[in-house]
Predict the 3D structure of the following.
Amino acid sequence: MENLQAIKQRFGIIGNDILLNRAIEKAIRVAPTDISVLVVGESGVGKESIPKIIHQLSHRKHAKYIAVNCGAIPEGTIDSELFGHEKGAFTGATASRKGYFEVADGGTIFLDEVGELPLTTQVRLLRVLENGEFIKVGSSQVQKTNVRIVAATNVNMHDAIGKEKFREDLYYRLSTIEIPLPPLRQRGEDIHLLFRKFAADFAQKYRMPTLRLEEEAVKLLINYDFPGNIRQLRNIAEQISVVEENRTISAEKLIQYLPNIKGNLPAIIGENTTKNDFATERDIMYKILFDMRNDINDLKKLTLDLLNDGNVTQVREENSSLIQKIFDDQQPVDTPKVEVVQIPQAPIENNYDFIETIEEDESLSLQDKEIEMIKKSLEKNNGKRKLAAKELGISERTLYRKIKQYDL
């Protein structure tokens, strides 16, 4: 049996990541058997390489190998594509047709994006896996097939099962052996290696000098998230190869080809950050004010409840300025010694008018700040309420209500 390095070279797989090596080794081990295999991983990680390895290292290597993208076939015709149909089975069926399971008899079928299969097709596929039988569309005759099925998906199958979009029994038949492939962002040491390979390929294809990345550009590339994985990296390498005249690429130039940079990239600090930093600090201050307002309102409610219950201590007149300062400024002060006496329970008549006045003034002040903060957040997020609500720390529904309330 070929060793790991020879397999990589043969199938054009680049990288030395431990998770990638483990996936390939697993494929090599299961290849001589007829066990069903499910390859899982994000879109663009290269899942199509694993079924090719399995087929070429199996006893079926001289028979047919058919790759089917289940997500690209319309729901109304996928049964016909996979299992065939008889003449007259449906409108437009002018002749009988063999399906992939009949054509690939003795070989291997790769079902890419198997999580996109309709439930009715899943039932037919389960029957093939269990006893090798299928029925053409429009026929009543049972046919036999001897195919090995290797499937792949970027869908979380357990979530799909929970939402009743995928049959649990089919999942366990497909995933007798499950081979996970890591996303590109987890293969840091392989990213630059892959980029150099793609750059060399495109230099040869377009007959131009090969690209070279500066050291800072390499760091930027390695720290990028790559939501599109290897497919996205290849696309970036091709864009730069065609567009850029200078074959040495700096970090400033590379960043133009990396959309939605965020997360673990190093921050770029310049003169223009002062204004943004100030805005951020102001937003934080507004949030603190909102929290403080809630605390003060709770304190007022508790105080009023105690006053109404008549179970509160009487504060000496010379210390009343302390309470006034707490409600007006909400600032910590040195608390003087308070002399208190118990009073009997009795109704209190209008002894806290100053609280209502303070509450009204404070409410107006905080309301203005709240309106300003909402406006700033909406402006910062280009009017997107969901992002603005997340930044403000409130629900989208609450934000919508406040927009209507303040007529923003």
Summary: The chain is about 50% helix and 10% strand.
